[in-house]
Each structure stands twice: as C-alpha cells, then as structure tokens.
Design brief:
two-stranded antiparallel sheet, LZ3wCH, nucleus, 2 strands, 68% helix, mainly alpha
C-alpha cells in the first residue's frame, strides 16, 4: 500500500506470481483473443435467439389463431347475410327518385345561400350608421346566425 495524501493505493504482491516467459504470454494472449471471439459469437447468437423469442411471444398461439379465424368467419357470414338482405330488399330507391331528392336539396341550399347573403347585406347596411358593434346589434334585434346555431352551409 502507498499513501498519497488522503488516498491509498494498493498493489498486488508481485512476489507470489511466478515469472512468465514471452512464449507463455503470447499463448495467453492468443487464448484471450480466441475466448473473446467466442464470447462475441455467443453474444450475437444470444441476441438472435432473444429476438426470435420476442417475436414468437408476440405472435398468436395456435389456439388463439383458431379462435380468431372462427370469429372472422362468423363476422364474414354475418356481413354476407346482411349483403344478401340488402340486395333482396324490395324498397330500393329508383335513380329518378334519387335525382329528384338531390335536385330539391340543391334548390334548398341555393335558396339558403341567397337568403343568407340578403340578410347579411341588410345587416351590413344597417350597421353603417349604427353606433354599436355587429354582435350587440344582433343581440338587440334578436337575430340568431348560422354560426350561433352551429349550422354549416352544405356545399352544392
């Protein structure tokens, strides 16, 4: 042991070790390098096996897979029955009726836009000479806007 200030350093007693010649050192170095290579290959193999184990643990077991297939087949047959029911339904809408409904919808949407624009123009004209804000005016008159009712103007 040697003391350097508050630190103490311990050394191994060299007398108990026998002298080793260069050939023995080279043989030991060679053995160390072989063992290091073996450790590396075993570590790599261990990593691969761990990855394989993780993959196998995360996949479904045979019983789970059979159950999943059974559930999916049941779901598929349910959808097939529903599709047949829809295909065989007698209350289909004819293309003419569908076109009529779409035309009426477009007409009502256009009318809604037109009336909204007219109301907006009238409110703007009134607000030109009105001393308060638009929000206060709408509150005072009692007008509810589409935005207040969360109504969204559909696209045509």
């Amino acid at each position: 042991m040697k003391t350097y200030g508050k630190q103490k350093i311990y050394f191994a007693d060299q007398a108990q070790f026998k002298d080793v010649n260069d050939a023995d050192l080279k043989a030991m170095d060679h053995q160390i390098s072989e063992l290091s290579g073996e450790v590396q290959s075993l570590t790599q193999s261990c990593r691969q096996l761990d990855a394989e184990l993780k993959e196998l643990n995360s996949s479904l077991t045979t019983e789970e897979m059979v159950s999943e297939i059974r559930d999916l087949k049941a779901e598929c047959s349910g959808y097939g029955a529903r599709l047949e029911k829809i295909k065989s339904a007698s209350n289909h809408i004819t293309p003419e009726e569908k076109d009529k409904v779409y035309k009426e919808r477009d007409l009502y949407v256009k009318e809604w836009k037109k009336r909204k624009r007219l109301a907006s123009d009238m409110i703007s004209a009134i607000l030109e000479g009105y001393p308060k804000s638009k929000k206060e005016f709408l509150e005072e008159v009692g007008v509810e806007t589409d935005e207040d009712c969360k109504a969204v103007l559909p696209s045509t």
